[in-house]
Amino acid sequence: MIKTFYRKEMVPKVQAGYSQSPQKPKLLMQTLEMNKLEDYFPVDSHWKPFSKKDIEIAHTKEYIEGFFKGEPFYATSNGLAWSREFANSAKYTSSSLYHAILASLKGNVCLSPTPGFHHATPSSGRGYCTFSGQVIASVKIFRELGLSGAYIDLDEHFGNSIEDSRNFISDLNLAVPEFANVNPNGSGKKYIRDFESKFEIILKKIHEKKIHYVVVCSGADSLIDDDLGGSVDLAEWLSIKRTIYSELAKLGNGNDKFPTVLTLFGGYRKDHYESVLDAHIQDLLLCLQIHFGILTKYTSVYKKKSLK
After folding, report:
1. Does the residue 64 lie in any domain?
2. Are 301 and 270 in contact (CB under 8 A)?
3. Which 3 state secondary structure label does DSSP give 157?
4. In principle, which of 64, 99, 133, 297 could form an S-S bond with 117, CB 3.0–4.6 Å?
């Protein structure tokens, strides 16, 4: 089963502007429940949110204080509408990823149903991302356990937060080595080939024991039907996921899985947001099938975007 690190505090009650991203964790969990799939994704809610001290790993004190106080620029640099509840939720989403990674290191496949993170910079938010949750989580893991991770970032938009933080955090290159922030380029078959060449490096580094866990950033906005994306179609997108899960499954040892974490990241369809959630569900069920041999009943509601 895929252990899921979710708490209701991860989601503000009021939508924070254009993007559905802040609501995405709740919407995904509701979709799993609606399709009677929740038992395959048992929820662990017994963990604490990050403190401001944790967030200081990846961000300046000025930004952190300004954001939580709702000061102009800092409060809305992420492109989202600020509220105290939304600000509080940011402490939980980053912590969800950290605890999912921590649990995966015990031989588990885990889910952190979180969007965003990968556009935030040390001194501000950006592109619907408030804090660099993956940077905070991986640096904490490295400092506590001496382990390094890789990010397979399939979001349509380059995950700049890791690269933008390398000069800000002295040991980030050890926590997430420069080769380990994988962002495929191109479209269609070119995108797939670029992914494969970069993923081969990750597999090599795993065998060399230089990478100890992998975070798969699902990125539904890389689908050609998305409002803000368009690199691959759904079949191509899922074929990439199949490659990832199949190769990582080979690295497991019996019931002990290679430490793997799934996250959500982007997806922005206004015409049919259910298709964004559906793509994520198909991704999760593919992972469940490959890692655990579990086939489930699920009827896809994915719709191709109509051309006008």
Report:
1. yes
2. no
3. coil
4. 133
CA torsion sign for 29, 259, 257, 207 is positive
Q: What's 273's domain CATH number?
A: 3.40.800.20
Whole-structure pTM over 0.70, yes or no? yes
The pLDDT tens digits along the chain (308 residues) read 999 999 999 998 766 555 577 789 999 999 999 999 999 999 999 999 999 999 999 999 999 999 999 998 999 888 888 889 989 999 999 999 999 999 999 999 999 999 878 789 999 888 778 999 999 999 999 999 999 999 999 987 766 889 999 999 999 999 999 999 999 999 999 999 999 999 999 999 999 999 999 999 999 999 999 988 789 999 999 999 999 999 999 999 888 999 999 999 888 888 999 999 999 999 999 999 999 999 999 999 999 987 65
Residue count of the chain, please give it.
Answer: 308
Domain that holds residue 220: 3-292
Answer whether residue 302 is part of any domain. no
Amino acid at 30: Q
- Please, which residues bridge with residue 182 across strands? 152
